[in-house]
Amino acid sequence: ARVSNSIITISEFSKKQIIKHTNSKAHKINVTLLSGSSDLNISNNITEELIKSKYRINSDYIICFGGSSPHKNILKLIKSIKNILINKSNLKLVIVGYVNNEIYDNIKKLKLEDCVITTGFIPDEDVNPLISYAKVFIFPSLYEGFGIPLLDAQSCGVPVVSSNAGSLTEVGGSETYYFDPKSKIDILM
Prior knowledge:
Blueprint: E1 7-9, H1 12-22, E2 29-31, H2 48-54, E3 60-65, H3 74-80, H4 82-87, E4 91-96, H5 101-109, E5 116-120, H6 124-132, E6 136-139, H7 148-155, E7 160-163, H8 168-172, E8 177-179, H9 184-188
Parallel strand pairs: 1-2, 3-4, 3-6, 4-5, 6-7, 7-8
Helix pairs in contact: 3-5
């Protein structure tokens, strides 16, 4: 980074991180924001009924994109919305991506096996339909350099609730409700 003539990065947040960790000069770092997955438009033949059937979703749902990486904060999300899921039998949490044994063990320990659906990998053509038919998209991440799933949810017209970590306030703008990802109470609001 120090010997480069120019650096391209994906957000002002990432630019600040590059400056902080490499002592690069701000004038040689150019920010080029990413876009959502607009090429993944909803196919006319992927109905709500079809997508729900494919992923064993039998009710309304909240969707999040995560996985097993600790910075995705999925375990905190599950613990924070446990009471909502238990008290609203017609609402599920759908986690897109692979989850590890720790997350599965906590789902069992919290008695949420009937409330949480994990999809594992999903093909590109299912991304927007799964988001579009959700009641809410939630992004509890502790750190993101950008956050394309947040833009995808906005382009699908789904209400977005996101952590205020990393670049997410920059990416989500004023149309997103933000929370402190380290606070259990904030996620419940």
